[in-house]
Amino acid sequence: MAGRTVLIAGGAGGMGLATGLRLAADDERIVLADLPGAKLDEAVSKIAATGANAIGLRLDVRSVAACRGVVDQAREWGGGLDILVNAAGVWLEGAASEVREEQWDLVLDVNLKGAFFLISAAIPHLSAAQGVIINIASDAGIVGNSGAAVYCASKGGLVLLTKALALELAPHGIRVNAVCPGDTATPMIEYQARTYGGDDPDGYKRRLLGHYPQGERARFIGVEEIASFIHYLCQPGAAPITGAALSIDFGISAGY
């Protein structure tokens, strides 16, 4: 088990970094790929502080060439590629009648296009390793969210991409699964609250939690909980699980 090479796109974000830290505890070699800057440097430092081998690579997932390049760099650094986690994501909400073309392009490029071309580039290496692909989708990839049509389109596409690739890649020994979290305590939630919450960002977050069946007990999911779920899916004991869209959302996608 020890010593696998893990590439995490969006690795400086909340779920990406938490996943890196969880897998680093198993002595895996961790490649965090994200936009360059202090955030990426700090994320790599946190993983390196655990004693794990870690490296940060610059990546703009909107670029096909950059996706292909970062897969090659990760493979060269790690001596192979065993696990790919697609954790990059952006949020957009608002009336569909007001969506601009550049907003559509940004959300689809980051949430769907980038994941596809990272997977495409990684297939030969993951085949050699009998590897694992984890796509972080969303409850919004399973059920519709009013006022978030573009985001739903991107994450719904990612869920069906996962299922199609699981079938295509099963003969190569590659497992592909989508993890579909509900609202999670990440910087993205804080961005949503600041951007769309007007003068009451805390009220925005309370309204999100108001949709959950737990009522007053509702809370945001912890990134460590997501990371533990992903960690399990990367283990040999999860071998039968492929092509699944796995909810971790306190039941919000179960129905009303």
Short description:
The protein is an alpha/beta fold. Helix content is 46%, strand content 14%.
Description:
The relative contact order is 0.14. 46% of the residues lie in helices and 14% in strands. It starts with a strand and ends in an 8-residue tail after the last strand. The chain is built from eight helices and seven strands. α1 links the parallel β1 and β2. The chain has a single domain, classed as NAD(P)-binding Rossmann-like Domain (Rossmann fold), CATH 3.40.50. It has helices at 14-24, 38-48, 64-78, 101-129, 149-169, 187-196, 201-209, 223-233; strands at residues 5-9, 29-34, 54-58, 83-86, 132-136, 175-181, 245-248. α4 (101-129) packs parallel to α5. The longest helix is centred in the middle third of the chain and has 29 residues, at 101-129. It has 256 residues and is an alpha/beta fold. A seven-stranded parallel β-sheet has the order 3-2-1-4-5-6-7, sandwiched between helices.
The largest sheet is: 7 strands, parallel
Quote the CATH topology. Rossmann fold
Q: Rg to the nearest angstrom?
A: 17 Å
Return the structural class. alpha/beta
Distance between the termini: 41 Å
- The neighbouring-strand order within the major sheet is 3-2-1-4-5-6-7
- Range of helix content: 40-55%
DSSP summary, beta strand count: 7
Number of helices: 8
The CATH homology group name: NAD(P)-binding Rossmann-like Domain
Low-pLDDT parts are: none
H-E string: EHEHEHEHEHEHHHE
Number of domain units: 1
Any guess at the CATH architecture?
3-Layer(aba) Sandwich
CATH class annotation:
Alpha Beta
Name the shape in a single word.
globular
